[in-house]
From TrEMBL:
Pfam families: Glycos_transf_2
Name recorded for this polypeptide: Glycosyltransferase family 2 protein
Superkingdom as given in the UniProt entry: Bacteria
Listed SUPFAM superfamilies: Nucleotide-diphospho-sugar transferases
The organism of origin for this protein: Actinacidiphila acididurans
Amino acid sequence: MRLSIVVPCFNEEAVIELFDARIRQTLATLPVEYELCYVDDGSRDATLDRLRALAAGREHTTRYVSFSRNFGKEAGILAGLKAATGDAVVIMDADLQHPPELIGRMLELHQAGHDQIIARRTRDGDKPLRTALSRLYYRMVNQWVDVELTDGVGDFRLLSRRAVDALLSLPEYNRFSKGLFSWIGFDTVTFDYRNAAREAGQTKWRIGALVNYGIDGLISFNNRPLRLAIYAGLGLATVAATYAVVVTVMAAIQGPDVPGYVTLLVAIVGLGGIQMLMLGLIGEYIGRIYYETKRRPHFLVKETNAAPQGSAALAP
Ligand code: UDP
Ligand code: MG
């Protein structure tokens, strides 16, 4: 049994060596052969130098792929999955927020026949406001999207070879991996672990990025929001038609009614707002179609120590 560990790294010079030591220590105690697949996602610090140094002399267990620029974590995961040759693959962060000790448990569950073993973090130590917002978001999203998204579930998981191949067979450009993992299905189990703080370095998430991520989650997996636009339009049109009849009848009975300026303004502004929102929504979908039709690769590789046949497989 051969296990691949996929690690996307962006500006992780502060923690990458520590991670490498910890993970190798853990893997040495497990009954598997292993390979580490580091993906340097266009780091601007010394991450790539560190990876080169780590891989020197142990090319058979440590591979790295370095991107030409920052393509985002989703692209990093994809490159890692493409590079991985193992019978099973574990995806984890470089900052040790995903405890390596859990891999043993994941392996046991994998050997018991599961294809996706998800480690879900609790929200210990998160800001209460952020926790509340996340809860609300997931409750809302799960009403809407066709795949199940779970709070606290991230990318930390073990995937069987057939689950990895299934993921790699999905060609889309916009990769919202939380949704993709859920979409492929297979026998899935989840267990919880206590949330840990980052060992060193800084989080790459800014609030704007989180909001964008949230929008991706909502519209990556269905067109129900567009359906909502149709219903909202129908509803408003019905209200307007009814109101027009009422006003006409009133005018016929009482004569024309000049006041009502505020009502008019509110109606115009309100409708304008809704229209803008719906246009934006449609624009989001069209934007996605635009990117899909370009068929650009998900990432460009600048440097790798992967074997030649490996780098052919790396071509996106
Ligand atoms: N990461 C990446 N590309 C990016 C941003 C992040 O490969 O553009 C990696 C990062 O190096 C880390 C993981 O994704 O290994 C999670 O990032 P981070 O710890 O900043 O996120 P958080 O844990 O705060 O959600
Ligand atoms: Mg982190």
